[in-house]
Design brief:
The protein has 4 helices and 11 strands. By secondary structure, it is α+β, with helices and mostly antiparallel strands. Strand 1 (21-23) and strand 2 form a beta hairpin. The chain starts with 20 loop residues before the first strand and ends with a strand. 38% of the residues are buried.
Length: 202
Amino acid sequence: LKPRKQTDLSNKKQDGLAHCKAVLFSPFFIFDIYCGRKMKGEIRSMFAIKPYQRLRAVEYAQKWAYSRSPLFQDYTDFGGDCTNFISQCLLAGSCVMNPLPTFGWYYRSENDYSPSRTGVPFLYNFLTANMEEGPFGDEIPPDSAELGDIVQLGREDGTYYHTLIITGIRDDEILVSAHDNNAYNRALSSYTYSNARFIHIR
């Protein structure tokens, strides 16, 4: 893996986590992604291209790896929560959604969200093909992966079934966090899978 500066996330001030407040369309509240507060306020546009703050995505993943944010539906009992959780992490790092029907990337409520928010292949398709609002992704080799990038695990038949986020790198070992099963800085090598694809978020 590329040598990179070590970043200590444990000493970051908690009040710095409240930077990202996203408008989730209806009922037009500003949501504090990190602190779980919900406040009425001015409607702000989320339809813009914004730089991906990967350490903020990592902070979110580490905070909620073993629990569930009250701001989003938990889909553990409805097909799995892994991609839903990673979508939350991406939102925390990008602070922007894509409202395009069917092919966008958005969450309005537990019953109104795009397929890419919760579906493994749909998230991949959105990230790698997106040309408008929302985060963007490129498939990369494992040795180019960075903190905040995404990993998807697949079977021999070419289908992919699990989405994780890279939240640590230790001695060239990639560490990931995820839901279903809950994982916090778990070694990627400890998973059993046939294929893996790495998505660099930008």
